[in-house]
Amino acid sequence: MLPLRRNSTTEGIMGMSGAERQRRYRQRHQSNGGRLNLAIDAHAKVVLQRLATCYGVTLREALEQALDQMEIRLLDALDAGERRRYYAGELALRRNGDDEDPPASSAAS
Questions:
Q1: Residue 82: closest CA among 68, 56, 102
Q2: Which of 49, 62, 93, 95 is the most buried (most CB within 10 A)?
Q3: CA–CA dist 54, 33 (Å, integer)
Q4: What is the average per-residue pLDDT within 56-80?
Q5: DSSP, residue by residue, 44-79
Q6: Maximum CA extent, the chain
């Protein structure tokens, strides 16, 4: 039996399974944040691509900026108690299945 050869470009043994190569790739390329894999609506993808192109950023950067701006708008509309509940993960302004967003002031108890 021939010994397995080292492959410097994959930083491992050539006989690795696809799952092992993928795991190592993700470890090498993991940023400070978490990983999010999801499917989005075709319209949302087109909007995200247009925003990224318009601002000259990556899709990830466009999404991060949109989320930051959305959070800032929300926080500006909340009072101090609602902000505390938001940061604690306890504030729910919209329930699944609801068609409309209630005003921020009605979320206070």
A1: 102
A2: 62
A3: 25
A4: 96
A5: HHHHHHHHHHHHT--HHHHHHHHHHHHHHHHHHHS-
A6: 72
User: What's the Cα-to-Cα distance from 21 to each of 17, 29, 93, rounded to whole Å?
Assistant: 6, 12, 42
**What is the per-residue pLDDT across 71-85, written as a single tens digit (0 to 9) for each?**
999 999 999 999 999
**DSSP structural state of residue 83:** H
* Tokens representing residue 16 in the block: 């690795």
Q: From the CB of residue 78, how many other CB atoms can be counted at a distance below 10 Å? A: 18
Whole-number Cα distances in Å, 19 to 11, 16, 22, 62, 89: 15, 8, 5, 30, 34
Question: Residue 21 gets which letter from DSSP?
Answer: H
pLDDT confidence of 35, banded at 50, 70, 90? confident
